[in-house]
Amino acid sequence: MLREGLIALLQQETDIEVVGQASHGLELLRMTRQLTPDVVIADVSMSMMGGIEVARRVRGELLSSRVLCLSATALHGQVLEALEAGALGYVLKNNGYGELARAIRHAYRHQVFLSSELVAPVMNACRAGQASASDTAGQPLTWREREVTRLFAEGCSTREVATRLHISAKTVATHRSHVFRKLNIHSVADLTRYAVKEGMTSLG
């Protein structure tokens, strides 16, 4: 319903053409490869593959499409992860349609766009990250380690994390071991507290 509503609104814009729609992340990535749209709107919580991973794949494959992430939550850690993955924008679902249209036009011009309420928290998080860079002894988490951390914090099992990220359970265990070592923690509970503190998840 949300997707169909957005399409109906976008089709009213004289400078925007909708060339396709997808029901999950893997389908979206396949269509991006085939249709090479100027801008891709990727829901962060899509099934099969989330919007952040879609952005990362698009950048990794050197596709020309620009990715906008759409989300229901304003987690600064997730916004930073999306930008690091190559997304050119992050738009919140609870804002007006006009903001999404502006974001699309910004992305088309290769300009970064964030929902207004995200700008200050993201900037503060960037400053805090720079100030506390020594906390991990010069070994910050990689984007994949951040993904694994977030999913474990949200209660996923090793097998579920592997399925969500399309990697093996053994690889997931290796990433978790690296995270524990880098953060000097020893349990999933500690991992969850870290994820909440860093804004990777809203669990409290």
UniProtKB/TrEMBL annotation:
InterPro entries: CheY-like_superfamily (IPR011006), NreC/VraR/RcsB-like_REC (IPR058245), Sig_transdc_resp-reg_C-effctor (IPR016032), Sig_transdc_resp-reg_receiver (IPR001789), Tscrpt_reg_LuxR_C (IPR000792), WalR-like (IPR039420). The modification 4-aspartylphosphate is found at residue 43. The keyword Secreted does not apply. Residues 134-199 form the HTH luxR-type domain. Keywords: DNA-binding, Phosphoprotein, Transcription, Transcription regulation. GO terms for molecular function: DNA binding. Residues 1-108 form the Response regulatory domain. Coiled coil: none annotated. It comes from the Bacteria. This is DNA-binding NarL/FixJ family response regulator.
